[in-house]
Design brief:
alpha/beta; 12 helices; 7-stranded mixed sheet; 6-stranded parallel sheet; globular
Length: 322
Amino acid sequence: MQAWRVHENGEPGEVMRLDEVDRPEPGPGQVLLRVRAANINFPDALLCRGQYQIRPPLPFTPGVEICGETGDGRRVIANPALPHGGLAEYVVADEAALLPAPEALDDAEAAALHIGYQTGVFGLHRRAHLQEGETLLVHAAAGGVGSAAVQLGKAAGARVIGVVGGSEKAAVARELGCDLVIDRRTDDIVAAVKEATGGRGADVVYDPVGGDAYAKSAKCVAFEGRIVIVGFASGSVPAPALNHALVKNYSIVGLHWGLYAQKDPASIVRCHEQLTRLAAEGAIKPLISERVPLKDAAAAVQRVADGTTTGRVVVLPDGADR
């Protein structure tokens, strides 16, 4: 079969190679899946660079979430077992962790439903306890993680303010349903949030960016607001001023979704049932900006790494428009 493999760490477009390899062999409790669609996540770029918290042995195949097909024809959502990631024709995954692909979504959409949307539900509801009528500020609102948070925030009845970089991404954020869109390249984020909220600030901030985005968030978070830290796409890990959090009475909460698979796997199943229901109701639908064939996967991972994409970029191994 064909699989993209990283033989040395570096930029995805430089270190990923399309190889002919044997199909991976399932171990105890695992199942072989045919990949119908593989969603590209920012962690795939970090894996290539050797900067992710998990460092699989070289050579490895990136791709941390897929829509796949079991031997008996079931469509499922899965997290492939590294080092045999999803940017390949076949993967192995833990059978107990397979989730049914929602009927309301096609293969590409189903592949993009899992990590980003689960992170959104756990971050917004379990960690930040977002309430109907509150103001939610989402950084990188036109990206894969941010677009999921925007949709989930709207589904929860929140007023959503999206922060983006550039007019093209601003248009995408408006189409997603943001009540207000702030272009960080031309607008003053802090002033715009305070003006939009009558000086109160944002009740919940969803931050997959870090760096300057976090610094701005701390200046415009509301009294008893919550800043949810879900990633550092900027490459800069901020150092929060805890005296500032004390003086303004806001909370800084972290969200590492992968821990729930270890600590509370039943919660992931419940979350998936909630997401499946929201998808069936039309309240959420992953924004797929590109569907690319397997041969173009390395360039696609590089675009995600460079931050030039909107929504999700999904690889379709057999080239079908699914």
